Sequence to fold (532 residues):
Amino acid sequence: MSATRELAWNAKAWPFEEARKVAQRVGEQVPDKGYVLFETGYGPSGLPHLGTFGEVARTTMVRRAFERLTGMPTRLFAFSDDMDGLRKVPDNIPNQEMVRQHLGKPLTDIPDPFGTHESFGAHNNARLRGFLDHFGFDYTFVSSTACYRSGRFDAALLHILRHYDAIMNIMLPTLGPERRQTYSPFLPVSPKTGRVLQVSILERDVERGRVVFEDEDGERRELPVTGGHCKVQWKPDWAMRWYALDVDYEMSGKDLIDSVKIGSKIVTALGGRPPEGFHYELFLDANGEKISKSKGNGLTMDEWLTYAPADSLALYMFQKPRAAKRLSFDVIPKAVDEYLQHLRKYHQETDPAKQLENPVWHIHEGVPPQPDASGLSYSILLNLASAANTEDRAVLWGFITRYAPDATPESAPILDTLVDYAVAYYRDFVKPSKQYRPPSGPERDALADLLAELEILEPGVEGETIQNRIYEVGRNHGYDNLRAWFKALYEILLGQSQGPRLGSFVALYGLDNFRDLLRRALAGEDLSQVTV
Fold:
């Protein structure tokens, strides 16, 4: 075993833990299909969202870890369940009445309400591919409709028909009494209406591969289970897909634990082997409630990407995937700064084993970009915009170039994008919530002493020296808990209860500018109107 692979086998990061499960599954030989298959699923009745990104990003992390472990070829299938019958009209589409007339039909047989593609399913599939392409994911798109109608699933469908009773024995105990009366793994597609029917199967002909059912008009009809004439119910369908495609790995949300157990039993009954995988926790909103697309109580993909780069979102997906996490606007700055910290640490690290543990190795598939030399954080930029009361990126860059003369938008592209994100976040979240307060009597005395201490500092003094002077003044004025002293400074000078490490911030903002801010606060000026 090469030294590189040996490091990977000992890596503790969760993608490597998952990758080792897949490696133990396939052994030392590449599967007969010629690759190890990772899969993600997509329900195309809605548009791609944060969950879509998270599942593909996490699966890709496991895939790349597996490749580092074994060197085996892999593929990632992004599978679209576009053969599903549409149950309800989404709220966020045009031409809803037109779509309502086609309820029950496969998504790929419903006209596109947007008028851009041959079907509603094709439209949403295109959105999925565009979404995945935008983030540079390496995947193969697979359509359920294409698999059914091209015959790719025919052998598996006939196998299900042969094992019909075994599958029913697995499924019926999981259903209520009423559902049991009509349940069948096969859903015939009505030749008359084109709808996917939830009806009983009256007769089965295993030799001919056909089933008999009662159509919507009351007529008994016979159809082959192959060629897209029948759709399989979703839990057996998931299992059938695993069996037909020989899927080696697929993760899913915690809400699908029971479905995975049922699917695994069905695959086993078919003579196949369930894929490896794990269950990730679902996201919670700011109140700790489960995020619901219908409620709209969570952060959307577009919203995150308005205020932060996708790499920070990928880090959020990497961190503790089995733990429930809040997904709200206030987590964004912390996620960005943690990403920047990991990026710097990766390039400072000389131990390759520790680099494999770093999240950015997994986010960037083993090739993280170089960090900007300035070392500036997203939070610092937010507080700079707050202190300067500006939404002008040129103003922020003016501060930056004085602090780091070699930094330019061209030489520091990560920093340059962060400036735009910080301006947007400041404009929409920080500025509307700023509440300045005047200093109390004892606070005025402390501010005056702080100003006096800073007045004697030479230009270009380091941030650490400034930080120490601030500490000293706080202690001299009876702040045993220095957190209270800094909170007072943030509320008086920045109009917020939390803020940056002040020494570093003052070095960036400018010692003269900060001294002027102190003078204005002592003079009782309205700092919300102060601009630099």
